[in-house]
Amino acid sequence: MKISWRTNLWFIPSLTVAAALVVFFVSQSLDRAEHVAVIALPAWLNQGSAADARALLSATAGAIITTLGLVLSITVLTLSIAASQFGQRLLRRYMRDRGTQACIGVFAATFVFSLLTLLSVTSRFNEKEYVPWLSIWISTLWALACIGVLIYYINHVALSIQVNNVLADLSADFLWAIRQNQRPNTPSIGSVPEVRADFALAAPVTGYIQLINYRALAATAAEADAVVQFLCRPGQFVVKGTTLAVAQGRRIAGRRFQEAFGHTIRIGVRRTLMQDPEFAIAQIVEIALRAMSPGINDPNTAVTCVNWLTDGLRELAQCPSRNPVHVDRSGNIRVIESVREYQYVVAAAYDPIRQVARNSPMLTIGMLNAISLIAPFVQTGTGKEALTNQMQLASEGFFADAVSGDREEVAAAYRRAAQALSSPRPFFSAA
Predict the structure, then answer these.
(1) Model confidence pLDDT, tens digit, residues 117-142
(2) Beta-carbon count within 10 A of 429 CB
(3) What are phi and psi of 36, to 5 degrees?
């Protein structure tokens, strides 16, 4: 299994410890040179005997390793809170957090430097004692800097577990993924050609489709004078042997073309955002569902999730339809990808939340208000139809079990959403 260097808690700390080793060797070289009278360091660096140096370094190393244990404990607690409140899929977000990795690295580097400096202090009989005061001062300054790092880390953790910040980051990920997958320079076509299933291209392993290198696959298909049409898209779970795509062509050599196809597709144990913007939506939806679970029952958080989903769907509605065709250098169609239509993205965002909003007037009104906000930006008929369907299902599910006092507010929200969907332009003021 391939482990990303970005998503772990050891890579950045390892680099900082390695940097501390380099600083240690440099400072020790200067201290040794001063010890044999090759160079002269400022006199104020010398603050006492070897016993004083050992006492200071012992206290520094002990305090730092204790604080490092506290930092690691806070990190584990943060991961536990994230897993229970936001879902385990968000653990990777916290593990790849640069602030957490840097804080652990600073404390680990300070401890290693202090411990090595402590070991270098010597005071043998009939020998001039060696006290590397330059290294000791560096160790002390790093220990003082760790106080500021600890304060920053506590503040950083307190901000990172706030649901508003988490949802804002997930929404930003969704917008980033949408823009990454836009292909503005691709020429449009009238219709997607039909591809005969002369050859079936199967999944080499089991897992989630993470990435498809369409450009490399188009070049491979051009060499074989073939056209490949995908039946699956990034983000879907496939099992080994599942037909991912079909190919049409006369010069397709079965095993060779299958191997070349396998090199252009990456399948892993988890979903990623690279070509799967819906993964960010799935994480926001998971937070909303956990908020509405019987043990938590927090409709405010669920409404906040709906609000951030609104911004993502608004951005997606304004993007031009993705061209599924990839051509070779000669302009011939070689690859046809499977594109997720807007109405299916709307369903993936709203269906699970709508199903748990039947007994929540606040969440139902929040969904209807969100539809009112998105509607002016949706230009296609299928998009408006998808929002209309969600609006009707949300109101029907609520009215089936609602008391009379709550129905009036939901009905008013329903009317606002219906008006927004029927209006060609926003009915509210831009100000």
Answers:
(1) 999 999 877 778 999 999 999 999 99
(2) 5
(3) -95, 15
Order of strands across the sheet that contains 207-212: 237-238, 207-212, 265-268
First to last CA, the chain: 52
- Using DSSP, state whether 94 is helix, strand or coil: helix
In 291-381 the beta strands, taken as DSSP E runs, fall at: 325-327, 333-336
Smallest CA-to-CA distance from 12 within 78, 82, 92, 109 is with 109
pLDDT given at position 430: 34
- Using CA atoms, how far apart are residues 82 and 108, in angstroms rounded to an integer? 24
Lookup: tokens for 109: 């580097």
Whether residue 195 contacts residue 336, with contact meaning beta carbons closer than 8 Å, is answered with yes
- Do 200 and 264 touch, CB atoms closer than 8 A? no
- E strands, 144-218, in order: 199-202, 207-212
List, for residues 190-213, the tens digit of each pLDDT value.
567 788 888 889 999 999 999 999
What is each CA distance from 177 to 34, 74, 172, in whole angstroms? 56, 31, 9
Separation CA 398–CA 208 (nearest Å) = 35
Position 431 confidence tier, pLDDT thresholds 50, 70, 90: very low
* Of the listed ranges 58-62, 113-117, 183-187, the one predicted with least confidence: 183-187
